[in-house]
Structures are given as C-alpha cells and as structure tokens.
C-alpha cells in the first residue's frame, strides 16, 4: 500500500502535538469524577490479548455493574455467555486489559487500562448475585490509567439518536448467520424462534 506511515516520527509530524487537556485528563487511579461515570455505565467493552490474538468483548448489566472497590481496583462479574471464554483465556495468560465504558445519552466515554486477575472467592461471587444467581467468576482489575474520551466519535456516529436506530429486519438475524456459516447444517429458523425466550431465561 503506497503512502504508508512507518515510524512514530512521521506519525507525530502528521498529527502534531496533543492538546494539554488530552494529557491532563489521564490519571493513575479512580477519582470521584471518573467513578461517577462507571457507576452510571450499563455497558463496557473489554479488550484482552493472548497467544491466539486479540479479543474485544461486550459486557453489560444494570448501571454500575462494574464495582469501584477502591481508587486502584475495579470488580466486574462475568455473567452468563457462550462459554467460549476468549477474554478469560487471555487474562489467564496475559493480564493486560482495556475497558471502554459507554453511558446511553452521554457523549464522553471512559477508558481504563490495567492488569486483571480472575477471582472465584465465594463471598465475592455471592456479592454479585442477581435473583440468587452468582457469576462463576469476577474479574478484578488493578488500574494503571484512567481517562475520558471526548464526544466526537459519539456525535459523528449519532449513536444515541433514536431516529438513526436500525430496524432488526434490515440485517441478517443470528439464526440466518449461523445457517450461512454452517452451510445450512444449522437450523437458523428454529434458532431465531427460540432465541428471545432463551435470552430471557438465561441472562443470569
């Protein structure tokens, strides 16, 4: 590919110096202002890296489902999923993680980088129980850096604009995708019919 950037020096010449505010906003601990973002966030993307490569996994629950234990520690329950365990496999072998918190209606996002471990301590698991169902594990993250991202990406995407929401029928359904990738060995229609009830009964 022609005209590629191949050095940090070229990159810095192209983009120039970062603003003072973009550097000042990064801290190494959870301050009250950033804690407010986490306690309001019902969604976070968890990025991990392991021998097989990268993973970015969506995580969501009620606002504040990621618990601020103290100024250096976050706790995130690992709720029921597909049991691929991509994120957890990566964490076991490489503790470096990145998190991106989103809050509906808010343009700014919050980024956290840190080191994670997986806890199965019984009392901790029970403290995250919902309807009597505890998670199988809790991801404990030691904070290295925290900073907010400005609203430009959210504004450009109009992510929270309800008039821009996409109707589900305009995209392939989960069952249709499974049928396609399995060359119709998978019954996609049956999968789609059963999915709403299965999701409802297996959230926790």
Automatic annotation (TrEMBL):
<protein>
    <submittedName>
        <fullName>Pyridoxamine 5'-phosphate oxidase</fullName>
    </submittedName>
</protein>
<dbReference type="InterPro" id="IPR012349">
    <property type="entry name" value="Split_barrel_FMN-bd"/>
</dbReference>
<dbReference type="InterPro" id="IPR024029">
    <property type="entry name" value="Pyridox_Oxase_FMN-dep"/>
</dbReference>
<dbReference type="InterPro" id="IPR011576">
    <property type="entry name" value="Pyridox_Oxase_N"/>
</dbReference>
<dbReference type="Pfam" id="PF01243">
    <property type="entry name" value="PNPOx_N"/>
</dbReference>
<feature type="domain" description="Pyridoxamine 5'-phosphate oxidase N-terminal">
    <location>
        <begin position="31"/>
        <end position="150"/>
    </location>
</feature>
């Amino acid at each position: 590919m022609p005209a590629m950037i191949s050095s940090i020096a070229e990159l810095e010449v192209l983009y120039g110096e970062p603003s003072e505010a973009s550097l000042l906003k990064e801290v190494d601990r959870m301050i009250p202002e950033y804690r407010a973002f986490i306690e309001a966030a019902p969604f976070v993307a968890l990025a991990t890296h392991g021998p097989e490569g990268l993973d970015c996994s969506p995580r969501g629950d009620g606002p504040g489902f990621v618990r601020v234990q103290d100024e250096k520690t976050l706790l995130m329950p690992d709720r029921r999923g597909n049991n691929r365990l991509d994120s957890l496999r990566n964490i076991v072998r490489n503790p470096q993680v990145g998190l991106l918190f989103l809050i509906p209606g808010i343009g700014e996002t919050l980024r956290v980088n840190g080191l994670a471990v997986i806890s199965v301590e019984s009392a901790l698991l029970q403290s995250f129980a919902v309807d009597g169902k505890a998670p199988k594990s809790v991801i404990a993250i030691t904070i290295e850096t925290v900073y907010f991202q400005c609203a430009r990406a959210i504004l450009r995407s109009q992510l929270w604009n309800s008039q821009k929401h996409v109707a589900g029928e305009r995209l392939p359904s989960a069952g249709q995708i499974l049928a396609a990738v399995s060359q119709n060995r998978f019954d996609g229609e049956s999968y789609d019919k059963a999915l709403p009830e299965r999701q409802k009964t297996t959230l926790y």
